[in-house]
Automatic annotation (TrEMBL), chain A:
The keyword Transmembrane helix applies. One of its GO terms (cellular component) is plasma membrane. PANTHER family: ABC TRANSPORTER PERMEASE PROTEIN YPHD-RELATED-RELATED (PTHR32196). CDD domains: TM_PBP1_transp_AraH_like. This is ABC transporter permease. It is a multi-pass membrane protein. It is found in: Cell membrane. GO terms for molecular function: transmembrane transporter activity. The keyword Transmembrane helix applies. The chain crosses the membrane at residues 26-44, 56-75, 82-100, 106-129, 134-152, 172-194, 225-244, 256-272, 279-301, 307-323. Keywords: Cell membrane, Membrane, Transmembrane, Transmembrane helix.
From TrEMBL, chain B:
Keywords: ATP-binding, Nucleotide-binding. InterPro entries: AAA+_ATPase, ABC_carbohydrate_import_ATPase, ABC_transporter-like_ATP-bd, P-loop_NTPase. Pfam families: ABC_tran (PF00005). Residues 8-245 form the ABC transporter domain. One of its GO terms (molecular function) is ATP hydrolysis activity. SMART domains: AAA. This is ABC transporter ATP-binding protein. The lineage of its organism: Bacteria, Pseudomonadati, Pseudomonadota, Alphaproteobacteria, Rhodospirillales.
Length: 327, 250
């Protein structure tokens, strides 16, 4: 390490107070900017910078951003959720099936209830049977994926209700697309709960030092139950958003979100081992992942090449942000 | 001092873990503003005793009285609600959080909308660390960035913030250097002025003689005796700890 850097490392606390911010958590903004500039320069003529394309990126990342919010709470509490992708599929299918029979409201309730119940099941096993969430949600990831497949025998279910499709998908309100409304509301409420409530503080304490939290009177088991239930509920909402945008539900929904969402949250500045996180960072991380997908497609890369490049970039981004935090 | 009523009174406390007797027949009174040291070799039962007083373990038999009221320390919450706070041997602080959030861990102050009242918590933290002269850079500092002495200072400040009656300290300076130990001792000393009863476990007899008004010796779960610091010396205490001197007549 060179001179000025080691000088800075000796008093990270002082610098943080001076600037009033936590430098570690800002890695994602530089990454976001770097990727944006790279695509803007190389793909500017290919429509990357068009308003339509940029707003498409935000629309497409809406479900991932919603999932990322849940994961910030889960990781901060010192747990992990690997099953949210499967919950997305179950919820979307439940919503579509029920909606086609009983109408929009019943469909929304069915989708949300599916997510909440699935998340509460994860949470109850982790909190009260005291099994590690990694193993529990690894198992339920398979379990829920199997249920999603058997619900409609692998068939895709069309979503015929146009109000629903507008509300959760292609519609807009005050000239702003509904998916953006959902994203902004979820991020704002999530950030607020995370930062401003006792619940948020208890989630952080639980993931930071469960023993200290528990001798301080915090019910850590209950916190674990709540964060995993929240993650399930948000997966239910993400399922509704997918069903609304695609006007169909299928067992494959949410399948590819696991890696993207975990990467978005970690790159965004949430600690993998709990105690500290950021909802805004997760939003930026999620947008960064969406931008990456979009840019690689515009560059004309084949699907397999896209996967390879994306994997490498995520690896690099995660490595950088974890190294920053380890100091 | 002895004319005053004890704030905490333990009578005939026993604790068995299965066949193991960790504490047999322990009795002790602690008065407001008094520092009592609990000494004894490893495994003597000191930490067990603190856990009994703080509601982590239930005693197998015996009574705990707080200001004339016999209480059952069925849980750590109940002990806390009786005004008893503990500073643990292994610090019970949340490392990634700020000093002020640790100060109010599990007991955060909220405003009338039910939201965290950071301003009040920060102000109270600042006031308390100033009073106790815990030298930390700021209430916003993250615990991880503090030295061992500063952390122990924060832990004691937190106990002081919440303890109405008694603070229990389990080897508060075991991991600290000379200067940091002196700082922590100074803070402990200042608790006397707050009329709080202090029970401190320490393996350093020098420290015990510097701080304590009375010294209580445990050996393999047995209470060997209690001495006033002014009327004893290290040799006697060492004899009591190691077993050269037999148990006082009960
Ligand atoms: N939960 C438990 N289950 C069984 N035995 C225990 C338990 N806790 C303590 N003991 C036993 O009780 C005895 C007293 O232990 P304790 O931790 O109170 O000692 P100590 O005086 O604090 O020692 P040290 O100075 O090493 O901290 C030891 O023999 C210990 O093995
Ligand atoms: Mg001990």
């Amino acid at each position: 390490m060179s001179g000025p850097q080691s000088g800075a490392a000796q008093k990270p606390a002082a610098i943080r107070f001076a600037l009033g911010l936590n430098l570690q958590q800002y890695v994602v903004y530089f990454g976001f900017l770097a990727i944006f500039l790279f695509f803007a320069i190389t793909l500017g003529d290919n429509g990357f910078l068009s308003v339509r394309n940029l707003s498409n990126i935000v629309l497409q990342t809406a479900p991932a951003t919603i999932l990322a919010i849940g994961l910030v709470f889960v990781l901060t509490a010192g747990e992990i959720d690997l099953s949210f992708g499967s919950i997305v599929a179950m919820s979307a299918l439940a919503a579509a099936v029920v909606m086609n029979e009983y109408g929009m409201t019943a469909g929304i309730l069915a989708g949300m209830a599916t997510g909440i119940v699935a998340g509460a099941l994860n949470g109850a096993v982790v909190a009260f049977v005291r099994l590690p969430s990694f193993l529990v949600t690894l198992a339920t990831m398979g379990l829920f994926a199997g249920i999603a497949r058997s619900m409609t025998n692998l068939r895709s279910i069309p979503v015929l209700d146009l109000d629903f499709a507008g509300f959760f998908g292609s519609g807009s309100f005050l000239g702003i697309p509904s998916l953006i409304w959902w994203t902004v509301m979820a991020v704002a409420i999530g950030h607020f709960i995370y930062r401003e409530t006792r619940f948020g503080a208890h989630v952080m304490a639980t993931g930071d030092n469960p023993r200290a939290a528990s001798v301080s009177g915090i019910k850590v088991a209950r916190i674990r139950l709540y964060v995993l239930t929240l993650s399930g509920g948000l997966a239910g909402l993400a399922g509704l958003l997918y069903a609304g945008r695609l006007q169909a539900a299928k067992y494959t929904l949410g399948e590819s979100d696991l890696m993207t969402v975990i990467a978005a949250v970690i790159v965004g500045g949430t600690l993998l081992h709990g105690g500290k996180g950021t909802i805004i960072g997760a939003l930026i991380g999620s947008l960064m992942m969406g931008m990456l997908n979009n840019g690689l497609i515009l560059m004309g890369l084949s699907v397999s090449d896209q996967m390879i490049v994306r994997g490498l970039i995520i690896l690099a981004a995660v490595a950088v942000s974890l190294r920053e935090k380890a100091r | 001092m002895s004319s005053q009523k004890p704030v905490l009174s333990l009578k005939d406390i026993q604790k068995h873990f299965g066949a193991v007797t960790a504490i047999e027949n322990f009795s002790l009174d602690i008065h407001p503003g008094e520092i009592v040291a609990l000494v004894g070799d490893n495994g003597a039962g000191k930490s067990t005793l603190i856990k009994i007083i703080s509601g982590v373990y239930a005693p197998s038999s015996g009574t705990i009285t707080i200001e004339d009221e016999t209480v059952s320390m069925a849980s750590a919450e109940i002990a806390r609600s009786h005004g008893i706070e503990v500073v643990y041997q292994d610090l019970a602080l949340a490392d990634q959080q700020s000093v002020y959030m640790n100060m109010f861990l599990g007991r955060e102050i909220t405003n009338r909308f039910g939201l965290l009242d950071r301003k009040t918590m920060i102000a109270e933290t600042q006031k308390l660390v100033d009073e106790l002269d815990v030298r930390i850079p700021s209430p916003h500092a993250t615990i991880r960035d503090l030295s061992g002495g500063q952390r122990q200072g924060v832990a004691i400040a937190r106990a002081t913030r919440w303890a109405k009656k008694v603070i229990l300290l389990d080897e508060p300076t075991a991991a600290l250097g000379v200067a940091e130990t002196a700082k922590v001792e100074e803070i402990v000393e200042s608790l006397k002025a707050r009329n709080i009863g202090v029970l401190i476990i320490s393996h350093s007899l020098d420290q015990v003689f510097r701080l304590a008004d009375r010294i209580c010796v445990l050996r393999r779960g047995q209470q060997i005796g209690i001495r006033e610091t002014a009327k004893t010396d290290k040799n006697e205490i060492i004899g009591m700890i190691t077993g050269l001197q037999q148990q006082d007549a009960a």
